[in-house]
Design brief:
The complex is a heterodimer of chains A (about 350) and B (about 300). Chain A is about 75% helix and about 0% strand. Chain A is mainly α. Chain A is elongated. The chains are: A mainly alpha (about 350), B mainly alpha (about 300).
C-alpha cells in the first residue's frame, strides 16, 4: 500500500458520456482522458524529469499533441464552454513549447560551439574586429603620446590604486621589482579568480553598451588602451620596455584578444542597429545579437584562460624571453583556432 | 460590468498576440504585463541576495573554525574558500538567469511564481521560432547594463557626483525605462536577442457543466426567453456557476427573471441557473453550427 502523500493522482475516468445533455460536452468528455494524459506528459517534461515518462507515452506524445490541437480548433467553433477552451488553449500552448522547443542538450550545444561554431561567428564579424583593433591601437598610441608630452596626463588616465608605485619618475629598480615573479604560490588562486571576475565584467560591459549604437563601446576600448599606453611609456622611459611587454604578453595576448572580441561583438550589434540595410532595426538587431552572443560566450572562456595565466603562470615564471614565448604561443593558438577551424556539418539529432 | 473591470479587460486585450503553429492553429499569447516582469525581477534579485547571505554565513562558519585550527592566517583551505566565494559571486550574478532560462520551462523562479516565461519572438509574421541558447545568452548579457549597473550606481550614491552623475543617471534611466517605450514590453536584451516574455499559466480542467442536470426538466424556456442573451452573458453565467457564491447566484437569478419576465423564486437559484445555462448554451451552440453567432445581448 502506498502512502497517500506520494501516490500520483490517477486520471479520473469522466462520468458517463451519454449523461451529458449538451453535444459539446459529450465531445469534450470523449477526449478528456487524452488531454489529461498529454497534460501529465508535459508536466513531467516541464519539471525536467523526462525519465518519468513511459515509452508508450513518449511515442504517443506527437499524436496526443496533434489531437489536442485539432480538438481546440473544433472546440472553438462548436463549444461555448469557456473553462474547457481556456484549458485546451493553455495545454496546447505548453505542449507547443515542449514539442517544438530546443532540440539540443547543453553538452551537445557546447560541442557544436567549441567545435567550430565559435570560430565561424568570429570570422563573421571580421569587419568589426578590424575596427575594434584599429581603435585599440589608436587608443594605446594616444595614451603613450599624451604621457610623453606631459607627465600629469598619467595621473589623469591611470587611477592611483592601479598604478601602485608604477608612476613616471619611479626608479628602474622599483619598476623591475614589480615585474619580478613571486616566491611561493599561495594566494595565486584567489588572485586569479578576482582578476577573472573583474575582467569579465569589463568585457560584458563593452558588449552590452553596444546596444547604444556602439559608441560607448568605442570609448571604453580607447580608454582601456590609453591606460595601457601610459603604463608602457613609464616602463620604456626607465629602459624596461621589453621586460614590461613580456610581462604583459603572458596573459595579455589572451586578455586583450578577449576584450577585442567583446568590443567587436558590441560594435557588431551597434553597427547593425545604426545601419540595418534592408531589414528593420529589430530584425537586424536580433540577427546581429545572436552572432555577437556566441562571440561573447567564447570571450568569457578566453578570460578564464587569461585569468589562470595571469594569476599563476605570470607570477611563477620570471625570464622575459620565456614570458614572451608563452605569449607568442597563445597568440598563435588563438589565431589558428579562429582561422582554421571550420563550422561542423550539422547533423539532425 | 463595472468600469474598473472593463478597464482591466481592455488592458489585457491590448496585450494579446497570435502565434501560428506549424499545424496552422492560431494560439493566442498574452504578453506579460510590465508589473509582472518587474515583480519577477525583484523576486529574483531577492533570491540572489538570499543566496549571497547564506553563502556568507556558511563561509563565516567554516572560516571561524578553520582560522581557529590553522597556525597561519592563510592556508590552502581558506584560499580555496576564497576562490569558491569569488567564483560563486560571479556565477550567481551571471549564471542564475542563464541556467534557468535555458531549462525546459524557460523561467527563473521569480518568473515561475508570477506565471510568465521567455519565448522566441516570431519574426516578420513567420511562425514562432525556437528559443536557442544564443538568444538566452544575448538577453542575459545585456541585463548587466539594465539591472546591475543601475543598482550599483544607486547604491554607491553616484547621482550626487555632479554633472557626470546626473548624466550617468539619465543614461541608465533610458535602459531601465526602455520597456515602457514599446508595445511588446521589450527590454534592450529582448530586442537584441529576439525574445519576449509571455504569460504561461497552467489552467486546470473544470467539470463539464451539463453532466448531472436532474433538475433540468423542471424548467422549460421558450424561444423568446432564450433569444435575449448572447455568448458574453453565457460565459459570465458560467463563471458565476463555477464559483458557487450564493449571493451572486441569487442576484443573477433575479436579474435573469426580470429580463425574461418570470417571477423570481427563492431557494432554487442553483437549479434554475443551471437549467437556464444548459438551455441557453444549447441554443447558442446550435446557432454557431449554422454560422449565426450572438456576441451579447446588444447585438
Amino acid at each position: 500500500m502506498q502512502l497517500p502523500f506520494f501516490r500520483r493522482k490517477e486520471i479520473e475516468t469522466p462520468p458517463d458520456i451519454a449523461a451529458a445533455s449538451l453535444r459539446s460536452d459529450r465531445f469534450r468528455l470523449e477526449r478528456e482522458v487524452d488531454w489529461q494524459r498529454l497534460d501529465r506528459i508535459i508536466l513531467a517534461l516541464e519539471k525536467g524529469r523526462p525519465k518519468r515518462i513511459s515509452d508508450e507515452d513518449l511515442l504517443d506524445l506527437p499524436v496526443l499533441y496533434r489531437k489536442a490541437a485539432s480538438s481546440l480548433a473544433v472546440a472553438r467553433e462548436t463549444s461555448l464552454d469557456a473553462a474547457a477552451l481556456e484549458y485546451l488553449e493553455s495545454l496546447v500552448r505548453r505542449a507547443w513549447f515542449q514539442v517544438y522547443g530546443p532540440r539540443i542538450t547543453l553538452s551537445g550545444w557546447l560541442r557544436r560551439f567549441l567545435g567550430g561554431g565559435w570560430s565561424a561567428a568570429v570570422r563573421a564579424i571580421w569587419l568589426d574586429i578590424c575596427i575594434a583593433l584599429s581603435v585599440m591601437v589608436a587608443g594605446a598610441a594616444t595614451g603613450w603620446l599624451l604621457v610623453a608630452r606631459d607627465r600629469d596626463w598619467f595621473f589623469a588616465l591611470v587611477p592611483g590604486a592601479m598604478a601602485g608605485g608604477r608612476v613616471p619618475g619611479a626608479s628602474a629598480e622599483a619598476l623591475r621589482a614589480t615585474l619580478a615573479p613571486q616566491a611561493g604560490s599561495e594566494g595565486l588562486a584567489s588572485f586569479a579568480a578576482y582578476l577573472f571576475s573583474n575582467n569579465t565584467g569589463v568585457a560584458i560591459l563593452a558588449f552590452a553598451l553596444g546596444f547604444a549604437f556602439g559608441i560607448p563601446t568605442l570609448l571604453l576600448l580607447v580608454y582601456n588602451m590609453a591606460l595601457l599606453g601610459a603604463m608602457l611609456w613609464v616602463f620604456a622611459e626607465a629602459g624596461l620596455g621589453w621586460e614590461f611587454a613580456a610581462w604583459l604578453s603572458v596573459h595579455g595576448t589572451t586578455e586583450l584578444g578577449a576584450i577585442l572580441l567583446a568590443g567587436a561583438a558590441g560594435l557588431h550589434v551597434g553597427r547593425a542597429m545604426a545601419f540595418p540595410g534592408d531589414s528593420s532595426i529589430l530584425a537586424a538587431a536580433q540577427a546581429s545579437g545572436q552572432r555577437a552572443a556566441q562571440v561573447m560566450a567564447g570571450a568569457t572562456l578566453m578570460l578564464v584562460v587569461a585569468g589562470l595565466l595571469e594569476g599563476y603562470v605570470r607570477q611563477l615564471i620570471g625570464a622575459p624571453s620565456a614570458r614572451a614565448a608563452i605569449g607568442g604561443l597563445m597568440l598563435a593558438f588563438w589565431l589558428g583556432y579562429f582561422l582554421l577551424v571550420r563550422r561542423p556539418i550539422e547533423h539532425e539529432t | 460590468m463595472s468600469t474598473a473591470s472593463q478597464a482591466v479587460q481592455a488592458a489585457a486585450n491590448k496585450r494579446q498576440r497570435m502565434l501560428l503553429t506549424p499545424e496552422g492553429l492560431a494560439l493566442p499569447l498574452t504578453i506579460a504585463s510590465r508589473g509582472a516582469r518587474a515583480g519577477a525581477l525583484l523576486l529574483d534579485l531577492t533570491f540572489i541576495a538570499l543566496g549571497f547571505i547564506v553563502l556568507a554565513i556558511v563561509l563565516g562558519l567554516l572560516g571561524f573554525s578553520v582560522i581557529g585550527l590553522a597556525t597561519r592566517s592563510t592556508g590552502p583551505v581558506v584560499e580555496l574558500l576564497m576562490v569558491v566565494a569569488t567564483l560563486s559571486l560571479f556565477l550567481i550574478r551571471y549564471g542564475y538567469f542563464l541556467w534557468f532560462e535555458l531549462g525546459p520551462r524557460a523561467a527563473t523562479p521569480g518568473k515561475r511564481v508570477l506565471g510568465i516565461r521567455v519565448a522566441a519572438r516570431p519574426q516578420d509574421g513567420v511562425t514562432g521560432g525556437r528559443l536557442t541558447a544564443e538568444m538566452v545568452i544575448a538577453r542575459n548579457l545585456l541585463r548587466d547594463v539594465e539591472v546591475f549597473l543601475p543598482v550599483f550606481f544607486l547604491v554607491s550614491g553616484g547621482e550626487q557626483a555632479g554633472v557626470v552623475g546626473v548624466a550617468t543617471f539619465v543614461w541608465l534611466a533610458v535602459f531601465v525605462l526602455f520597456p515602457f517605450a514599446n508595445r511588446d514590453a521589450l527590454r534592450a536584451g529582448d530586442v537584441v536577442a529576439g525574445t519576449w516574455v509571455i504569460e504561461a499559466s497552467r489552467a486546470k480542467l473544470q467539470q463539464a457543466m451539463s453532466v448531472d442536470l436532474a433538475s433540468a426538466r423542471d424548467y422549460r424556456f421558450g424561444e423568446e426567453e432564450l433569444a435575449i442573451y448572447g455568448e458574453h452573458e453565457l460565459q459570465v453565467l458560467e463563471t458565476v456557476l463555477r464559483q458557487g457564491n450564493a449571493a451572486a447566484m441569487r442576484e443573477v437569478a433575479e436579474t435573469i427573471c426580470r429580463k425574461i419576465g418570470w417571477e423570481a423564486g427563492i431557494g432554487d437559484e442553483r437549479a434554475f441557473l443551471e437549467a437556464f445555462y444548459a438551455a441557453l448554451r444549447a441554443r447558442l451552440e446550435q446557432g454557431m453550427r449554422f454560422g449565426q453567432r450572438k456576441k451579447d445581448k446588444f447585438s
